[in-house]
Amino acid sequence: MSLRHFNLAIVGAGPAGMAAAVEARRHNLSVAVLDDQPAAGGQILRGITTSGRPDYEKWGGPLAEAFESCGAEHIRGAAVWGREDSLLLYSRQGRTESIEADGVILATGSMERPCVVPGNTLPGVVTVGALQSLLKGSGCVPAGDFVLAGNGPLLLLCAVQLADAGAKASAIVQTTPGSRFRSSLWKAPGLLFDPALLVKGLGLMARIRRHGIAVYGEAGNIRIEGADRVSTIRFESKGRKAELLVEMVALHDGVVPNDNLAISFGAQARWNENLACYQLLMDSDTKVAALENVWAAGDMVAIYGGYQASITGRLAALDACLDLGFLSPAYYRSIREPLASKRRRLLVARHFVDAYYAPTLLPATAADDALLCRCEEVSVGAIRDRIAQGVDGTRAIKAATRCGMGPCQGRQCTVSLASMLGHDRPRSSFARPSLRFPARPITVAELAQSHQGISHTGSDS
Amino acid sequence: MLLRQLDESRARLTITVDDRPLQAFAGETIAACLLSNGVTFTRLTPGGARRAPYCLMGACFECTMTVDGRTNVQTCLRLAEDGMVVERTRTP
Ligand code: FES
Fold first, then answer.
1. What is the CATH number of the domain that holds A200?
2. H-assigned helices in A70-211
3. How many Å lie between the centroid of ligand 1 and the Cα of residue B53?
4. Would the CB atoms of B59 and A126 count as touching at under 8 Å?
5. Residues 6+ apart with CB under 8 A from A461
6. Is residue A167 pLDDT above 50, yes or no?
7. In the prediction, which pLDDT does A38 show?
8. Average pLDDT, chain A
9. Measuring CA to CA, which residue among B89, B87, B90 is closest to residue B20?
């Protein structure tokens, strides 16, 4: 079988990727959607096509249905790791496969901001997103006592979802500063622009109270302890010390763009000190700078949440359709303009979003013994020492400490490291360290196989 | 046991983890199955510390194990299949 060719490949089957696929299919492009998860939906709509649970946002169902019937080829469990000209390489069930695509839309979404607190690597510590993904994807909930700790409405939402499913958290430990809490809840764009969600958002606190979950507000100095797994979480709340015995702790401190694949393709990113995260350099709202025929959409470009991602996904698809010659400029403008203006109306909420996601568990304020780089076990204290010694810039610190050189390739620590430099050395160099090729750790055997037989990979699995 | 399965009417299957048979439910990822069966760690760091699945969405690589002979498989991204053989990656 020869190498399969598509007009457009989309990486990511969340709201942006699904919407892009539907739009591109509408204009008759052949489309492949590659996603590393077992089912479509991304993080926010995880399991929407399989679980039949009713509590997804209301635009999610129609989008997922449109996606499933749009005629795009959905390649599940595919971890894309490289691009050579029109060839897109991915690893699936341990084999390297490839397809050919004239254009690529990256829609790799967001990932949770690393929470740098002492004890965050103990077995039993997970992210709040992880608990949500276990609930929606695998149908599993914590079996014993657990706590949700950190910042952001996702904490509340997840606590309610778990309690509704029969797993009540021992407590919610809110690190949100007292002054910010109400404004974030009110000003979240999803809440502002979706009346149903607004009601839902306002109801969350009430539902948490009704479930009888204790909420510790204005918390800080979190410390997770245990011999070889979690046994205790200690913290201060409103100046009072507290300690809870638990088996699991789920941390959350907002989300950051997941731009790893774009970076490994050669895209550039700039550090944004206000948002405390990197931002991809773009030629337009959807076209990735410096990469030929590569567009990007959704939270990987800027964090606006799932609904906006479904709009930027369509915009990216339209731009790709135009550049690849599938739409006349006049027709393109007639469809794109209304969509773009709808998006501009939503963009008014930008500063609300920034307030909403402002992080609270950054390493600059963390204890010395908190691990900043999980893989190479580099502590906040070690980085602090290097900065004090005058080692400057993300690359130099990486070279001096091995921070970011483990299996996750800096996915977890790069943002933390840059935020520390931003705090201590406002004029430091924040070059986004490039990712090793391939973007995913794959085995040497797999690589060898892909080089021997690139023209017939994907044919015999 | 860190986790429990909400819907025990799901089809059951068996996977082997470090020579021990574990019961899993259809539709669970390998990582979910491990955490529901008392397997509390998936890998050891070079310094010897125990690590377990953390992000459950493919970003942290704490959950990597050897699955059916393939090393470095992210167990949070793979559904458990009947007869799967899962091993901790041995530290050199
Ligand atoms: S648990 Fe993080 S990659 Fe699997």
1. 3.50.50.60
2. 128-133, 153-164, 178-187, 189-193, 195-211
3. 5
4. no
5. A92, A93, A95, A97
6. yes
7. 82
8. 86
9. B87
Range of the domain at A73: 5-111+256-327
Cα–ligand 1 centroid distance for B56 (angstroms): 4
Whether B45 maps to a domain, the answer reads: yes
Partner residues linked to A111 by β-bridges = A256
Q: Which residue of chain A has the CA closest to B57?
A: A130
pLDDT tens for A237-265 read 999 999 999 999 999 998 899 998 999 89
Question: How would residue A184 be classed by pLDDT, with cut points 50, 70 and 90?
Answer: low
Q: Are residues A305 and A271 part of one domain?
A: yes
In the numeric block, which tokens belong to residue A239? 């100046």
In a domain, B2, yes or no: no
Which residues of A fall within a CB distance of 8 Å from B10? 139
Has residue A151 got a pLDDT over 70? Answer: yes
The answer to whether the Cβ–Cβ distance between A138 and B40 falls below 8 Å is no
CB contact under 8 A, A374 and B51: yes
Total length of chain A:
461
CB of B52 shorter than 6 A to ligand 1 = no
pLDDT at A193: 47
**Residue A91: closest CA among B37, B71, B40:** B71
Q: Identify the pLDDT of residue B58.
A: 87
Domain count, chain B: 1
Nearest to B6 among A127, A140, A247 (CB): A140
- Considering the entire predicted model, what is its pTM? 0.85
Nearest Cα residue to A236 out of A216, A214, A212: A216
Helices (H) and strands (E) in chain A, counts: 15, 22
Q: Which domain holds residue B85?
A: 12-90
Residues A234 and A266 in one domain: no
Q: Are residues A41 and A172 in the same domain?
A: no
Identify which of A36, A122, A377 has the shortest CB distance to residue B47: A377
Q: Is residue B79 part of a domain?
A: yes
Residues A388 and A310 placed together within one structural domain of the fold: no
Q: Is B60 in the pocket of ligand 1 (CB under 6 A)?
A: yes
Q: Whose CA is nearest to atom 3 of ligand 1?
A: B58
DSSP helix/strand/coil, B17: strand
| The total number of structural domains that make up chain A | 3
In whole angstroms, what is the distance from residue A281 CA to residue A272 CA? 11
* 3-state class (DSSP) for residue A382: helix
Question: A312 CB contacts (<8 Å, ≥6 apart)?
Answer: A16, A285, A286, A297, A298, A301, A304, A343
Q: Is residue B1 part of a domain?
A: no
| CATH (domain of B23) | 3.10.20.440
Cα–Cα distance between A168 and A5 in angstroms, integer? 49
| Residue A107 counted as domain residue | yes
pLDDT score at A458: 37
Give the pLDDT mean for B21-48.
92
Among the ranges given (A55-59, A150-154, A326-330, A362-366), the one the predictor scored with the smallest mean pLDDT:
A55-59
Tokens of A67: 């996606």
Taking residue A182's Cβ as centre, other Cβ atoms within 10 Å add up to 11
Q: Looking at residues A376-389, what average pLDDT do you find? A: 93
